[in-house]
Give the backbone structure.
Amino acid sequence: MEAYRQEIIVGSVVIYMLFCIATGLWAMRRTHNSSDFFVAGRGLGPIVVALALFSSTLSGFGFVGGPGLVYSIGVSSFWMVVISSTGYAIGFFLVAKRIRMIAELRDCLSLPDIVAARYGSDTVRFLIALTIVLGVMGYLATQILAMAVVMQAILSGTEIFADIGLATCVAISSAVLIFYCVTGGIIASVYTDVVQGFIMMIAGSLILMTAMSVFDGGMQEASAIILADDSEAIMPFGSAGVMASLGWFFVFGLGLAGQPHLITKMMMNKNMSDNRSILPMSLFGYVMAALLWISIGIVMRAAVIDGVVEPLALPDDAASTFLSIFANPVLAGVVFAGLFAAIMSTSDAFLNIGTAAVIHDMPKALRGRSVENELFWARVVTVLLAVVAASFALYSHYADATLVALLGAFGWGTFAASIFPVVAVGLNWRGATVAGAVTAIISALLINFVVQLAGIVLPYGISGPLVAFITSMILFIGVSLLTKKCELAPDIESVLRI
């Protein structure tokens, strides 16, 4: 079996790609209007929503970036895992019930629809839509580039595709992504998330067992090797330090309730009572999948220190190197397929909310109504956004490595800083005002943009997104207290009082 390792991995990825195409065709038969395309007709069951929620949280970042973070900064990365776990509870407590009720009352198709209903303001709708579009372009470009790089690494190991170029891999991966996004919309995404979620949970437990077998003493020996080499990396706050680790509470804990691709999924469950089971199922799946993040990072760092493995060229190579050296070929194939599933379904989710912002929310904010024939234009704009993101990815790789990084600055941290106060706090505080919401969003965008563009390095390991989050929260509350409270519609007033 070892002799056919590369063929098994390639076969697993091909099977997954074919599954995506089949899912798109199946979902197309269930997509009849824009409500189906954007929010799956708000008719999904609890298991589907739970798996879609947690798998969208980890995404390619959990498969690739997570182990790389443990490899480079040690235990600091664990705080992201632990704090994000609390984020699920915070998100469901603050957002899930009210956002689902408003979506039902006002027939909302997107997050900007929700904030427009809450604040009675098209300005707030437009700013949230703008934030989503900016963040989505950064996420999409990095996801497409990551998918192409992984595909090139896999295919170049075979004799037939030894000379395959990155541009070809971008074209292949983008074509599959566009096909199943255009045909199936969010329905294709969430059902791909179901498969991805199961793969991540199974892979997490199997990878942990594989990692424990690398050293005779298991994870304890691996930790001891790291401790002897760099005691700070294995201490409670790791190499990043106290401020960075605790700062992730705001960005990854509270900030999870500000991620539009996750919040939108909270609008899709058929019954609001399902939230009682969705939360524990999502949390369980997340913890199981996070085992891969933690175990690979620790073992790879210990293996490099001990001389078992050559030093990695990049920290993000930790997962692929581990799979190539230590994992059973079948397990490696399953995990690589899971990686593509993670990237593909997350890309679909971002394409979906980005498309909604362009053809549904911005026109509503600017001229009072969305475009005619929304389903047709949703599919057209989906293609355009994917092509633009793929172009950015290639341009960044070959000409300007800062472009995607700049767009990526409007990623998780900017979503957290811009959306958490306006949505998570605003849905629970009737005193929140339009002026407070506008100030919070603009300040978050400006701070993240300036820190990234100017390359500002803050002291004590403080991150730009943390500064943006705290500033946005303070301004949101302060300006709301100083400005006139907006008159709420009776139905929205009733929801906020529940």
Notes: Residues 2-497 form a domain with the Sodium/glucose cotransporter fold (CATH 1.20.1730.10). The radius of gyration is 22 Å. The longest helix spans residues 166-212. The chain has 20 helices and no strands.
